[in-house]
Amino acid sequence: MKTLINLESIRTAGLGLVDRRRLGEVSSVGVAERSVMICGGTGCASSDAMQIVDAFIQEVSSQGIEDKVEIVRTGCFGLCELGPVVIIYPDEVFYSRVSLEDVAEIVEEHLLKGQFVERLVYQQSMENGVIKPLHDVDFFRKQKRIALRNCGTIDPEEINEYIAVSGYQALHKVLTKMQPADVVREVREAGLRGRGGGGFPTGIKWETAAKQQNAHKYVICNADEGDPGAFMDRSILEGDPHSVLEGMALAGYAIGADHGFIYLRAEYPIAVKRVQIAIKQAREYGLLGEDLFGSGFSFDVSIRLGAGAFVCGEETALMNSIEGRRGMPNPKPPFPAVSGLWGKPTVINNVETLANVPIILLQGADWYAGIGTEKSKGTKVFALGGKVVNTGLVEVPMGITLRDVIYEIGGGIPGGKAFKAVQTGGPSGGCLTSEHLDRQIDYDTLLSLGSMMGSGGMLVMDEETCMVDVARYYLDFTRDESCGKCAPCRIGTKRLLEILDKITEGKGTLQDLDKLEELSEQIKAASLCGLGQTAPNPVLSTLKYFRDEYIAHVIDKKCPSGVCRSLLTYYIEAEKCRGCGLCARKCPSNAITGKLKEPYVIDLQACIKCGICFESCKFTAIYKS
Amino acid sequence: MEDTCCCQGEQSNERLDKVKEVIEQFRMLQGALIPVLHEIQDIFGYLPEEALRIVSSELDMPMAEIYGVATFYSFFSLEPKGEHVIRVCMGTACYIKGAQAVLDRLSQELNIPVQGTTPDGKFTLDATRCLGACGLAPVMTIGEKVFGRLTPKEIPKILKQMRTPVEAH
């Protein structure tokens, strides 16, 4: 078992080294040496990042500089678009889209000669041929990393690195100096609200569970991130699993629980592996298990794998799944904090919420409450995606505007296209328009605009996105993921989808728009759980802000964005067609005919609108309308 | 990954023995069914009926309840999968960047519907929820390999590569 003295010595030994790797915190320790940080998040790992780690280790050792250079496989840096990403400290040089073949060159030029490999340097970090410090790059400048504080800075598979960044210090402080009630008060005063989407005050949830008289209580970490387009929970578990374990132990102490479960998606193999390693290491160090720090408090954590059911993100459904049943929700009350897993008081918190807990207890409620807006404290991690230049993971203080996130951090819309909408909150959220770009992001503002924070997906859409199709897409998702227990959700989402299908096929009527609204309101009011209660949000918000697009589909039978296939027609422009015949050869339905070197023609009756001709034409002679 | 076919005979018996081992390992765990199903799917690549029968008798649980759970979760499959499982991400980021066109193209090239397996057992086509690699959208995976920033145009070439037998290592 490790004592505080052990922790301190591990921390001081690693301190200078890890500080050097933090954005904007260049330490004077060991400046002649270098740290090569390679992102090992899912995005980068899927494009050979792991092989790049091995290649660096091999290359550095064959050059005989392994004692000068540390190679660290880290969690997500955020800029997934540019993966695989390699950052070299203390120079703060950001290499993007590094391939295996580039490794030798980076080692030779940068590590041996101190010259940057300019062609691989992330363009936005260069100004007039000079490399800017990374924290001055637009993508990072307006961010504030609290939940992601260690992602991209430490090796997630090495507990000593977490300890080096003050890991498990909060647990020590709390177990030796604070009463459970003090912990609850601190979290309540910090103003932390649930980051899974609902925004319920964490301290109040803990307080309710702490008040229950029961020999057994549980803490559950909800890592069943199923929102399409959201991956912050996965990235935190991959990049900094110990902070979540520490947060769980702190919650356990606060409410009097001795066991915790991490309910994690089986579809996230890297996260599963890293959490397993973290639990094993924490047990070996005595930071999980019996009698932590000799305080008499015992707490252990086990993993339960989800199996691909979106509804399991709903807390009562999740508990049913841990108990070995279908993941279907129960009516509330009783709330889990009163009667949860196996009937015991249970606190369920999302990954990001728990990752915030250790640093709140270490730095204090006042520090945390000083960040954000009046009613939404702290920061929020967003998975920024869709039609935006810098896609990736960003963490911003509450109260920042959508414009700052999309244009300053996200770099705007690629290809000179116009911004159309931003979707927040995944299938539970709604679409906002350019009118809302200057509104600040917090729980209450987003709700008042008809969207929500949700788990933090932020999808940017440009003029080529059809909003009716987007609504249809989300309804297809929720209809598919509805567990079927309650009729408003099971039948209602199906009917909503049918109407949306009808509209995108050009068969809709104006009455259908009224039906959509009426049905949506009923589903929201009558569904059992959050899935059904929020499923109509994408429909309602698109109807509110993009009614003209619905009207164009219904009245004019046109899809203004050119997405809805039934409403599209492909033509060949005779003047541009060189008669190469490629389209006719590719066409799967033999709908294109013509003679070589003469303009070809599409038979609109036979055309199945697959768009293969459109993609294959080398002379942009085919257009759709 | 070469063991994904539904072999009969000795190999199959060995695997059924493994099922018993797995059940022993989890027997004392509260809510053991889902972890047991995960392990069985790891062994066979899907959930074969005979393995589920063992679970039913060993854990003293009706088959109806086991099927109820197995069919509820999309991660579990009652059918054997093809040699290569192609999963096209249909997360929002991928969808608005054209994943549907990629999926359609695959379905067309392989001549199977989504969730179908080719008659030669070579490919299974699945649409999947967010793979969490939104920066690379649109994305698909074939086995462990990830293909990012896809266009439908690339599909025939990728399938051709997968069809070409790789020399044994």
From TrEMBL, chain A:
UniProt keywords, alphabetically: 4Fe-4S, Iron, Iron-sulfur, Metal-binding
InterPro entries given in the database record: 4Fe4S_Fe-S-bd (IPR017896), 4Fe4S_Fe_S_CS (IPR017900), NADH-UbQ_OxRdtase_51kDa_CS (IPR001949), Nuo51_FMN-bd (IPR011538), Nuo51_FMN-bd_sf (IPR037225), Nuop51_4Fe4S-bd (IPR019575), Nuop51_4Fe4S-bd_sf (IPR037207), Soluble_ligand-bd (IPR019554)
Gene3D superfamilies xref list: 3.10.20.600, 3.30.70.20, 6.10.250.1450, Glutaredoxin (3.40.30.10), NADH-ubiquinone oxidoreductase 51kDa subunit (3.40.50.11540), NADH-ubiquinone oxidoreductase 51kDa subunit, iron-sulphur binding domain (1.20.1440.230)
Origin superkingdom: Bacteria
Annotated Pfam families: 2Fe-2S_thioredx, Complex1_51K, Fer4, NADH_4Fe-4S, SLBB
Annotated ranges, domain 4Fe-4S ferredoxin-type: 568-597, 598-625
PANTHER family noted in UniProt: NADH-QUINONE OXIDOREDUCTASE SUBUNIT F
Family: Belongs to the complex I 51 kDa subunit family.
Name of the molecule in the record: NADH dehydrogenase
From TrEMBL, chain B:
NCBIfam families assigned: PRK07539.1-2 (NF005722)
Any Pfam family hit: 2Fe-2S_thioredx
Sorted UniProt keywords: 2Fe-2S, Iron, Iron-sulfur, Metal-binding
Lineage: Bacteria, Bacillati, Bacillota, Bacilli, Bacillales
Xref: InterPro entries: NADP_DH_HndA-like (IPR028431), NuoE-like (IPR002023), NuoE_dom (IPR042128), NuoE_N (IPR041921), Thioredoxin-like_sf (IPR036249)
Native source species: Paenibacillus segetis
Cofactors (names): [2Fe-2S] cluster
Protein family (similarity comment): Belongs to the complex I 24 kDa subunit family.
Protein name: NADH dehydrogenase
Origin: domain of life: Bacteria
